[in-house]
Each structure stands twice: as structure tokens, then as C-alpha cells.
Design a protein that fits this description.
heterodimer; A: about 325 residues; alpha/beta; Rossmann fold; two-stranded parallel ribbon; 8 strands; elongated; B: about 700 residues; 5-stranded parallel beta sheet; 4-stranded mixed beta sheet; 26 helices; about 50% helix
Chain lengths: ~325, ~700
């Protein structure tokens, strides 16, 4: 049988050339592997397990993210509206009827990023607009939703003609941020205009996270382009990464190893990713903290660690 | 982003190149008149250009096509064509979708006619478009166009259609006829009918257009109108028969170059009373990879090919370079083991790795001697202390290669039943003299001349090191006259070097590690890519696997019978019909290379000799160089290639290797097994 190490290296090399935007060259991998104990010849090999995890890392580069933003607009926004229009018009396929009605809906829509303007949700809006050829005036900041009623503290919708608010983010892990947005904004919008449609669309979501937003918030719709079920949870019983039982790879050893190092980086509860997400995913613009910290950790003042796919943390002052 | 801006060797197929790139990446061979001298584009004699996958057929044929002539003669295309003395019309048979012309409830002879008509229309349009592009708009054509068109229109049964009045009108008519024919052919599966009216007699326009043009236009007078038909293997036997007929009935001023894989010629038969075209009479053959392989200038050509790629790559990166400077200095771009006496540098790692413990090859020898002593097959050795003495005498700690040589000579003497204590003493003394330069014509000098590569290969294997396929000359050798193989090897090496954080061809040489991994990956790719589909393909691959296994067993045996064993010789006529067929397929698919004949050692007979494609050598850790050839008996070859005999393979292979292995060298004591004495088929086949 072919030795595992060269096989994994060859797989990673192919991923690096084709998907990973050349971010993982062999010297960088070696530097990252040096974080782990070298093989002692006895017992499982930490570096081999680390390399195995890396070979399963799902990276979405610039091209893929842009493609997903197109899919988000097309599949979650445009097509459902066109379906509604057709249904209301005897299933017409007449584009001369459909197009103006869709344009009217689009003009009554505003797209917003989730989170602080410096965070990824807002950052993605720029590419979302580019990829889908949308005019600038369809995009607003959250503070532009409301305005104060003359001389009072009470809020009113700044533009009452708007019938749809679409909140866009790159990733929904626990669903916490979606819930906060619902509480802070969606409930207020609904109070002021009960028939306004408010949606939460993300590129990636864990099944649990998007389920929470669907079930526990006031969003009319919460959907993801790429939903990660429990098989994406690295060390779960049905983990997709350990299905091909390789003799050199031990799932429980791998989990212990990642937990041990992770505990030195972040809190014990988050040692395998934020709120125990245990993901192996990264994007061109950042790596979510739901991914195993051994992949991304590089925080100032923390344990010395060379990351493979660095995460740019949300620093707070 | 263009593929070649990331890796200069990314594009390895000429079909993926634009016309401009075909021109930009063109490299000639510097012997004789170069490729023009080989392909003879001005010769009226039709030519089959045969070659394995990646031998450069497409690049060569496209180079002679009209679009490339335009690029080469930008200033005055017509003058350039006149100077070239030919005008080339290139087409690929794969774009025909030739499988359409069969079955669908129609008789075969009907399809023969329809296909011939379709080709007539297609070739005629290509020729007309080319001519129009070359002479369109000239006063010369304006003066003579009406006459030419009238002459050609008379060859078409127009029925109700108006007669064309210009060459472009004629071309439009042909296009219309072809579209009608396409419609009829494509719909015949549904309609079960084939409503076709054949409006042109075979060959009338294919030969008629060039004849009329050449006779009427002074600017093209004396030019050969050359049909360059590529990927001929994509045509069925009956379709090839039509093209063969065109070759046979060729009329001036036309000629043909037919490009095909080695296995691509399904028939030489024609519709002229089913007579076959004969080489030398109706056509000549250019066997491209064989010619390149045997050409002394091939290495120079290969280096220029690489340099050309790098020049284009560096142009994209704004680094000024020149082709010749690059070609000459290319060797320095690849790390190689430093040259040293007795390969001391290459093998120095052995000293460190086995410091304080027995080196693995001595460990192996010890085990064999102990076993031999037990079975009383160690002449001159009586007790374990004798074994220690032998091991001590054969040591040469500073030079692991010489230790391997000592052991090899020892095995030779052991097989010849020499007194082993005396033999080891003599070998040790000779080794000592060889190291100090005091020996004359020593066994070591002679032995290393022949066996050094094999002994180093064994040493690497003994010490868990990968085999070293490194250095530019090695890669050129591996390519065996197939330039694409060279480019593929370099593509993989370049990719690994980049991944390993190196900057290939920019300063520091590419590490041996990147070269080794790249070659190994390229070899695996070749193996996968060469896999043929279907039962025959499986037979070929199974046979090649068995052959590789046999060669490996021999190369890494204690006392190999042949050095650099990757070839075999055989009297093919005495092997089974299946073996002959599979062998033929393996050769046509370039898995085996025919390397000429070899006289049998015992008879006057000249046997065929084949080498396993060098690109496959890394798969079995074999040598890429060809020295000794294993003389196989027909029964042995059958065991390798004929499925009715393969159950004998394991036994025969084991017996063959056993004859080269201590302590019994094929003579197993009766008490140890059933076998004794000579070992059947492979007896007396080994040569020291």
C-alpha cells in the first residue's frame, strides 16, 4: 500500500494548485506541521494526523465565493420572486410581463450586510453587487432603515415603499447573530410594517445554526446556499472525514490532539471551534472561528502558533 | 489567465494551441533539413506520418498548414507560398464525428457513398476557403475567376440550383449541400431513411479545384496543394478505405500527409478493385518517434524545446532571455548528485544512517550465508566464524557502492561454486587496490562500468531511499522520442518545485526531491493515460504489469543476469497468436518500444527486441537505459502476455529470480522443496 504521508502531500498539492489559491506551499505546511510533535516512532503520529485534517480542509477561494454570491441572488432571491409572479399570472412565461414586475420588486428591495461595516457580511456586499449587476441604491446600512419621527424618539421606516429587506452574511454557525439581528431590527421593522418581508440569507450555515434562525426569530425566511449537516462536524459520530478508515488515522486520537492544542489557544468550550463547531472550512477573505483553531490560530498575546489558514480576529478595544 | 503563465509546461497537446502559439512554440531539429526534410511538404508522394501519442504529429502538420504559412510570411503571403512551393490545408478527422456514418437501418455500402460524398464536400470547401484567403481580391483572380468557376461548376450536378458565378458562391453552394447532407445523416436515426442526392463524383472537386486553380493562376503555379489529414485513427476501416483511394488515385498538383497513431491505420485497402496501397509505391512513411529517438540531435532538439517554453514563459514575466543561452545552460537548472570517486557523495548518507549498526546489505548477506551454511552450500565455509570473516573482508566502510560491488562479485563467485573464504579475500584485496589506484584492469573497474547503475539502485532500495531519476539528460532519455513525454515530466517537476517553495529555472537548481516526485507522478500519469479500454486493453496492461514485475525481480536479485534490465528479445513467430496480437498492441500504444533485432546467442536466428517504455521505468524502479536484454523463450513470453498461460507466470518468474538468488541459485536441496536441479524453462538463460 502507498505510504500515507506522500499521498496526503500529493492530494494537498493538487488542492493547492486548483482550489487553495496557492496558499499552502510545502514550506508553509512544514512550518505549520512543526507546531505538532514529530513522530516518535511509537504510537500515533501527530503530524500525520494534522496533515490528514489539512487534506480534508474545504477552502472557498475568490472565484468560488463570487460564484456562491451569484447563486445566492439567483436561487434565494430572484427565482422565488419570479415564481410568485408567474403563479399570480397563470404561470406565464412571457418575459415582457415578468421582467417589469420583477424590476418593480427589486426596486422595492434593500440589501444589507450583517455585522459591523468592517466585517465580512458587509465586505461581501461589494462583490454581491458586482456579480449580480445591481445598482448601488439597492444597498443600505442598517441605520438607513429607520428615521426619527420629527422631534421625537420614536422610529419610523425611512422609506415606506420598501417591501423587502434582505440581510446577507457569509456564515451562520450558531445562529446567535441572526437572533440578535431579529431582536434589534426585524422586530422593529415588523412593528412598523407588518407585511414587509425580511430575509436572512447566508452562503454557508450549519444545519443547527440556520434552524435556530428559522425557528426562533422573526425573519420571514432564513436560508443558506451551502448547508453543513452534522457530517461536517469533524469528530462527530457520522463525520464524513473519517469514513474511509485508514489504518494510520485514529479519529479519537485526532480529536484529543486538536482539543489539547485548542485548549491552549481559546477557552475549553471553544477548543474545537466556536461553541464546539468542529468545522474544517475557510474562505478567501477569512477563516471562521467555527473551524478548528489548530488551523487558524494566530492571535496576539496567545500561545505561539503558526497558522495554516490564518483567521483575522475581530479585535475589540 | 493563460495556463502557461503559471507553469510553462502546462500545455502539452498541440491541439490546444492557437495558430500563433503553434508558430511561437515551434522548434526545428538541427539535423539535415530539419522537420521539413523529414516531412517533405513539397513531395507529391503521399506520406503517412505515424507516431505514438505526443510524438509531435499535430504540431508538425499544423506547422505546414496555410494559417501558419500566413504567420511565417506576414509581409507577402503569396510570395511566401510560392517560395514554400506548397499550400497546406489541415483538417482533423475527430471534428468529423465520423461515427454518424453508420447503421441507423441503412446498408453499409450506402454509408460508404454518403461518407465519401461528405468528405468530398468538406475537403473541397477547406481547399476553396484556403485558396480564396490566399488569392481573394487579387486582379489575377478577378480575371480568371469566371472560367475557373465555370470549370468547377460543371463537375457538380446542380439540378434546379443556379450555377455559382464566383468562388465564394461556389463555396456557399458546397456549404449548402453539406448542410443538407448533415440534416439527412443526423435525422436518419429517426426517419430511418437517407434521402441523399450525390451531386459530385468522388475526387472530382478534391483534385479538380487545385488543378483548375494551379492552371489558371500564375501566383500559385508550381505549388503543391497539400491535404494534411490528421487523427486518421478516428476513421473506421471503410472510411479509411475512401481516403486510401484518394491517395491511390492522387492527381497533380495534389498530395496528402496523413497523421495517425501507430495503431491508427486500420487498412491499406482501396476501392480500386480492393487493391492495397503499398509503402514505397503509393505512399511513404515517416515514423516520427522512432526517427526522433534514433536522431543524434534529439537531445539538442529537446533542450531547445524546453528553452523555447521558458523563453515564452519569461517573456510573460518580463525576464529577457535567449533561446540558445537557455538551451545550453538548462542542465544547470536541475540538481544532480555531486560527482565523486566511487559515488562517495551520493552514498555518504549510508555512513550516517547506519552508524553503529550493520548495513542492510551485509545483514542480507549474513542471512543468506547462515542459511547456506545450514544447507551446506557455502564452499569453503565451515562455521559461523567464517561468515564473520567473509563479511569483514567484503567491507569498505567509506565507500558503500564498493561494498555493494564486493557483495555482487561475491555472489557471482558463490554461484560459480568458488571457495567463498578465498573469494572474499581476493575481492577485498582487489577492492583495496582499486581504491588506491594500484590495480590494473581490475574486476571492480570493469564491473562498475556495467553494473554501477544497478548497484546504486539496489543500494537505494536496501537503505529505503527513493530511486533517483534526476537530471535533464535522464528526462530526455525517458521521453524516448516523444516530446510530449518530456513536457509532461517537466510539467510535474515544475509544479512540485513550486509547491516545495522553489523558484524553478530562476537561480537555484530544482531540488532532487522535486525532480523525483515529479518524475514519479508523471510516470503514474503515463501508466493511467496509456490504459486502453476493453478486453484487449486489459490484456495489454496485465502483460505490461507482469513484464515490469519480472524486470524488477531481476534487477533487485542478488546476482542479476542482465544489467539495466528493461528489454527482452524474443523469437515472436514461435509465440502464441494471442501473445503476438497483444505484443503488437503494446507496441502500437507505445508501451513497448521496438528496438530492433538481436542475434540469439545459441542460433543464427535474429530475434525481435523490445524495451519497456522508459516512462514506465519509475513505476517498477527500473533503469531508463538499455543495456542487456533478457532472452525470453516463447513459452515465457506467453506466460507474460497470453491469458491462457498466465497461471504459469508466478512460478516461472519466481524460478527465474531464484536462479539469481543466494544461497541456492535455483538449485534447492531436495529436503527443502520439490524443486531440484535445473529449473525448467529458464534454465541456462542467465549470463554472467
Amino acid at each position: 500500500m502507498e505510504p500515507l504521508m506522500p499521498f496526503l502531500k500529493a492530494k494537498i498539492k493538487t488542492l493547492n494548485e486548483t482550489i487553495w489559491e496557492n496558499r499552502a506551499t510545502d514550506p508553509a505546511i512544514t512550518e505549520w506541521l512543526d507546531n505538532f510533535s514529530p513522530s516518535s516512532g511509537a504510537g500515533p503520529d501527530e503530524q500525520m494526523h494534522a496533515l490528514f485534517l489539512l487534506s480534508n480542509f474545504m477552502y472557498f477561494g475568490d472565484r468560488e465565493i463570487r460564484g456562491l454570491l451569484k447563486a445566492l441572488y439567483r436561487d434565494l432571491y430572484r427565482y422565488p420572486i419570479i415564481e410568485e409572479i408567474r403563479r399570480a399570472n397563470n404561470d406565464t412565461v412571457d418575459s415582457s410581463l415578468i421582467d417589469p414586475l420583477f424590476t418593480a420588486q427589486l426596486q422595492a428591495t434593500r440589501f444589507l450586510g450583517v455585522g459591523n461595516p468592517s466585517e465580512s457580511g458587509c465586505h461581501l456586499l461589494y462583490y454581491f453587487r458586482q456579480e449580480n449587476n445591481l445598482p448601488k441604491n439597492l444597498f443600505i446600512h442598517t441605520h438607513q432603515i429607520f428615521t426619527r419621527r420629527g422631534g421625537t424618539d420614536s422610529l419610523q421606516l425611512r422609506d415606506t415603499a420598501i417591501s423587502r429587506y434582505i440581510f446577507i452574511d457569509d456564515f451562520c454557525g450558531s445562529g446567535k447573530q441572526g437572533s440578535e439581528y431579529s431582536r434589534d431590527l426585524v422586530e422593529e421593522i415588523k412593528k412598523l410594517k407588518s407585511d414587509a418581508s425580511v430575509a436572512y440569507y447566508v452562503l454557508f450555515a450549519t444545519a443547527k445554526g440556520i434552524g435556530k434562525v428559522k425557528d426562533e426569530t422573526k425573519f420571514d425566511s432564513a436560508r443558506a446556499i451551502y448547508e453543513l449537516d452534522s457530517s461536517f462536524k469533524c469528530f462527530s459520530a457520522d463525520s464524513r472525514y473519517f469514513r474511509n478508515r485508514l489504518p494510520e488515522i485514529d479519529q479519537s486520537f485526532c480529536e484529543r490532539m486538536c482539543r489539547l492544542y485548542g485548549q491552549k489557544m481559546v477557552s475549553s468550550a471553544d477548543a474545537l471551534g466556536f461553541e464546539d463547531s468542529q468545522l474544517l472550512i475557510g474562505f478567501h477573505h477569512n477563516t471562521p472561528d467555527n473551524t478548528l483553531p489548530v488551523i487558524w490560530f494566530d492571535e496576539p498575546g496567545g500561545v505561539p502558533w503558526k497558522p495554516m489558514f490564518r483567521r483575522y480576529p475581530k479585535l475589540a478595544w | 489567465m493563460k495556463d502557461t503563465t503559471l507553469n510553462p509546461f502546462n500545455i502539452t497537446k498541440a491541439v490546444d494551441f492557437s495558430d500563433q502559439e503553434i508558430n511561437d512554440y515551434w522548434v526545428d531539429i538541427s539535423s539535415g533539413d530539419g522537420f521539413t526534410g523529414l516531412a517533405k511538404p513539397t513531395s507529391p508522394m503521399p506520406m503517412l506520418i505515424l507516431g505514438g501519442k505526443g510524438s509531435g504529429k499535430t504540431h508538425l502538420m499544423r506547422y505546414f498548414s496555410y494559417p501558419l504559412q500566413c504567420i511565417r510570411h506576414t509581409q507577402d503571403v503569396l510570395a511566401g507560398i510560392k517560395h514554400d512551393k506548397y499550400i497546406g490545408v489541415y483538417l482533423r478527422c475527430s471534428s468529423l464525428n465520423s461515427l454518424r456514418f453508420r447503421e441507423k437501418g441503412q446498408r453499409e455500402e450506402m454509408w460508404e457513398e454518403v461518407f465519401a460524398y461528405y468528405m468530398e464536400l468538406w475537403l473541397s470547401q477547406l481547399m476553396l476557403s484556403t485558396v480564396l484567403s490566399a488569392v481573394g481580391g487579387t486582379s489575377e483572380l478577378a480575371d480568371r475567376e469566371a472560367d475557373v468557376v465555370a470549370e468547377l461548376a460543371a463537375l457538380i450536378h446542380l439540378r434546379q440550383r443556379p450555377s455559382p458565378t464566383s468562388l465564394s458562391g461556389l463555396n456557399a453552394l458546397l456549404r449548402e449541400l453539406q448542410q443538407e447532407l448533415d440534416g439527412a445523416v443526423n435525422n436518419s436515426a429517426i426517419t430511418r431513411t437517407l434521402p441523399v442526392h450525390i451531386a459530385i463524383t468522388r475526387g472530382d472537386l478534391v483534385f479538380g479545384i487545385p488543378r483548375a486553380i494551379e492552371a489558371s493562376l500564375r501566383s500559385l503555379r508550381g505549388c503543391l496543394f497539400l491535404y494534411l489529414i490528421d487523427e486518421f485513427e478516428n476513421l473506421s476501416e471503410v472510411q479509411q478505405k475512401y481516403v486510401n483511394t484518394l491517395l491511390r488515385d492522387r492527381k497533380s498538383p495534389c498530395s496528402f500527409k496523413i497523421g495517425a497513431r501507430m495503431y491508427g491505420i486500420r487498412t491499406l485497402s482501396t476501392y480500386s478493385t480492393d487493391e492495397e496501397n503499398k509503402e514505397g509505391s503509393e505512399f511513404e512513411v515517416l515514423r516520427l518517434d522512432a526517427i526522433l529517438r534514433e536522431n543524434k540531435k534529439y537531445e539538442e532538439f529537446a533542450k531547445r524545446l524546453i528553452a523555447k517554453r521558458l523563453a515564452e514563459f519569461n517573456r510573460a514575466q518580463s525576464v529577457p532571455t535567449t533561446l540558445d543561452a537557455n538551451a545550453k545552460s538548462l542542465g544547470e537548472c536541475f540538481e544532480e548528485p555531486p560527482k565523486s570517486d566511487f559515488s562517495a557523495s551520493e552514498t555518504a548518507y549510508v555512513i550516517d544512517k547506519y552508524h553503529g549498526r550493520e548495513r542492510p546489505y551485509f545483514k542480507n548477506l549474513r542471512q543468506r550465508l547462515e542459511r547456506g551454511l545450514k544447507w551446506n552450500v557455502t564452499p569453503g565455509l565451515r562455521q559461523p566464524a567464517d561468515i564473520e570473516k567473509v563479511l569483514q573482508l567484503l567491507q569498505c566502510p567509506k565507500f558503500p557502492l564498493l561494498e555493494k560491488a564486493n557483495i555482487f562479485f561475491f555472489y557471482q563467485d558463490w554461484r560459480s561454486k568458488h571457495n567463498l573464504l578465498e573469494a572474499s579475500r581476493k575481492i577485498g584485496d582487489e577492492c583495496d587496490q582499486y581504491v588506491h589506484g594500484t590495480s590494473k584492469g581490475s574486476r571492480h573497474k570493469e564491473g562498475l562500468l556495467h553494473w554501477k547503475a544497478d548497484l546504486l539502485a539496489q543500494l537505494y532500495r536496501d537503505t529505503d531511499q527513493p530511486q533517483r531519476y534526476v537530471g535533464l539528460s535522464t528526462f530526455v532519455e525517458i521521453s524516448s522520442g516523444l516530446p510530449r513525454i518530456l513536457l509532461i515530466v517537466l510539467k510535474h517537476i515544475f509544479a512540485w518545485a513550486t509547491f516545495n517553495g522553489e523558484k524553478p529555472f530562476q537561480g537555484s537548481p530544482i531540488s532532487m526531491r522535486s525532480q523525483q516526485t515529479g518524475v514519479s507522478e508523471a510516470s503514474e500519469w503515463f501508466y493511467r493515460d496509456a490504459r486502453m479500454i476493453g478486453r484487449e486493453g486489459q490484456l495489454v496492461m496485465d502483460g505490461i504489469n507482469r513484464l515490469g514485475t519480472l524486470f524488477r525481480g531481476i534487477r533487485f536479485s542478488d546476482k542479476p543476469a542482465e544489467c539495466s534490465c528493461s528489454s527482452f528479445s524474443i523469437d515472436v513467430s514461435r509465440s502464441s497468436e494471442t501473445t503476438r496480437r497483444v505484443l503488437d498492441l503494446a507496441e502500437k500504444w507505445s508501451l513497448l518500444i521496438d528496438v530492433g533485432g538481436q542475434p540469439d546467442r545459441n542460433t543464427e536466428r535474429i530475434d525481435r527486441k523490445y524495451q519497456l517504455n522508459r516512462m514506465l521505468a519509475p513505476r517498477w524502479d527500473l533503469s531508463i537505459y538499455r543495456r542487456g536484454a533478457l532472452a525470453l523463450k516463447p513459452e515465457e513470453l506467453n506466460a507474460v502476455f497470453d491469458p491462457d498461460h498466465v497461471e504459469e507466470f508466478d512460478k516461472l518468474s519466481e524460478e527465474r529470480v531464484a536462479r539469481m538468488s543466494a544461497p541456492f541459485f535455483g538449485h534447492v536441496p531436495r529436503a527443502l522443496g520439490d524443486m531440484s536441479g535445473d529449473l525448467g524453462l529458464y534454465a541456462e538463460q542467465d549470463h554472467d
